């Protein structure tokens, strides 16, 4: 009898332990031991160079932010990259794949403002936090704002504040040239406001097809308007610089100013040496430990310095990691939103802060002069002044 009772007790104990282990395993699976991040980027198409820069930066950001473990708050990180092909319809479809088939916890992207605006409503619909990088259109955190969207990228108004600081003043006449889509129109609108606040007059706005390769007619209209300055807003490989030079715009007494973009555009800007302008990043400009690490690691991994949008990709990764550290790994969107509003986090551009009212990251910009380089066969931006996050803070445009 005693043996039978002991046997029965042991069987109950074994079953209890097995059941407890099963419950623990099921609980662990339900809580999600892997955090999935879906990254949308232009890996092909007109902005593919930007997409690849963002991808490299995002991967390096995860490496830096996790000390190479690819884990945060005890959970593994899985990243899925999808190519938007720089096409809003494709971007939306790829986002749906990430949300429905992959069940990602975060969205990140994209390279194009058009692609991004096609996706941000899905973040709200599926209640997933989306970190926007590097799309710059003001409307993303303005007219098309929703609570699930946070942006590490600078927006057009931050570009505009930096650009206006370089040239605008009482009585200065300015013409603009930009691509005819959200990025270009938002960029000109923001610049116009900033320049007029400083006393300048915008006397002509010229918009070219975003895929144009011939800018002759556009540039001639600008010449005919006889401005003191031409402010150019452009993104992509089909830049207007060669034709601006060929049509001798500067020789006609019109000074050029623009944002200094990625390295691929710098050889084409050789005739603009001496130009005062701005940039959102060049690897020699920021002075902080995160940027030092990025420059060294990027050189080691890719045998070149990081480019224009590499630090943005890194910043997006660091923002996601900081939010997860503060929530102890929780991917509950309401908790994440509460955490990320007002959150400060270290980036290659110094400390960024997500402004609570519109989730735009306030950040450094750089006032520069384009100078000849002893190291390269193209001109490079030389720092005139670091423009602080407070100096370039854009207006809140979402009605809040």
TrEMBL record:
The question of whether Isomerase is a record keyword is answered with no
InterPro entries, per database record: BCAA_transport, Leu-bd, Peripla_BP_I
- Start and end residues of each Leucine-binding protein domain: 34-371
List residues traversing the bilayer. Answer: none
The answer to whether the entry has keyword Signal is: yes
Q: Which Pfam families does the UniProt entry name for this protein?
A: Peripla_BP_6
Alphabetically ordered keywords of this record? Signal
Signal peptide range equals 1-20
Q: Which domain of life is it from?
A: Bacteria
Protein family according to the UniProt entry: Belongs to the leucine-binding protein family.
PANTHER family, per this entry?
A: LEUCINE-SPECIFIC-BINDING PROTEIN, PERIPLASMIC BINDING PROTEIN OF ABC TRANSPORTER FOR NATURAL AMINO ACIDS
| Record's protein name | ABC transporter permease
Name its species: Halobacillus salinus
């Amino acid at each position: 009898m005693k043996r039978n009772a002991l046997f029965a007790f042991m069987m109950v104990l074994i079953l209890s332990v097995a059941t407890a282990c099963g419950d623990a395993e099921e609980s662990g699976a339900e809580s999600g031991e892997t955090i999935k991040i879906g990254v949308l980027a232009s890996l092909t198409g007109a902005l593919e160079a930007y997409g690849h820069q963002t991808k490299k930066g995002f991967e390096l950001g995860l490496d830096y932010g996790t000390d190479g473990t690819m884990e945060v708050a005890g959970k593994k990180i899985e990243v899925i990259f999808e190519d938007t092909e720089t096409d809003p319809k494709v971007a939306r479809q790829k986002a749906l794949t990430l949300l429905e088939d992959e069940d990602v916890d975060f969205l990140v992207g994209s390279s194009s403002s058009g692609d991004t605006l096609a996706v941000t409503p899905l973040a709200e619909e599926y209640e997933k936090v989306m970190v926007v990088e590097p799309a710059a259109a003001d409307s993303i955190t303005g007219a098309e704002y929703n609570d699930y969207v946070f942006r590490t990228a600078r927006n057009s108004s931050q570009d505009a504040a930096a650009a206006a600081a370089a040239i605008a003043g009482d009585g200065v006449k300015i013409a603009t040239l930009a691509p005819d889509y959200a990025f270009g129109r938002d960029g000109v609108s923001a610049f116009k406001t900033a320049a007029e606040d400083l006393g300048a007059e915008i006397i002509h706005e010229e918009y070219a097809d975003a895929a144009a390769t011939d800018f002759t007619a556009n540039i001639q209209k600008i010449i005919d308007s006889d401005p003191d300055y031409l402010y150019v807003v452009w993104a992509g490989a089909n830049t207007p610089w060669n034709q601006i030079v060929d049509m001798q715009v500067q020789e006609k007494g019109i000074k050029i100013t623009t944002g200094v973009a990625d390295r691929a555009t710098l050889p084409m800007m050789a005739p603009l040496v001496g130009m005062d302008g701005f940039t959102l990043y060049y690897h020699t400009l920021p002075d902080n430990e995160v940027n030092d690490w990025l420059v060294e690691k990027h050189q080691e991994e890719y045998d070149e310095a990081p480019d224009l949008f590499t630090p943005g990709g890194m910043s997006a990764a660091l923002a996601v990691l900081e939010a997860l550290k503060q929530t102890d790994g929780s991917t509950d969107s309401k908790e994440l939103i509460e955490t990320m509003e007002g959150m400060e986090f270290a980036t290659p551009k110094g400390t960024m802060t997500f402004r609570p009212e519109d989730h735009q990251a306030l950040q450094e910009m750089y006032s520069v002069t384009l100078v000849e380089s002893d190291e390269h066969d193209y001109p490079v931006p030389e720092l005139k002044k670091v423009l602080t996050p407070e100096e370039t803070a854009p207006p809140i445009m979402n009605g809040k």
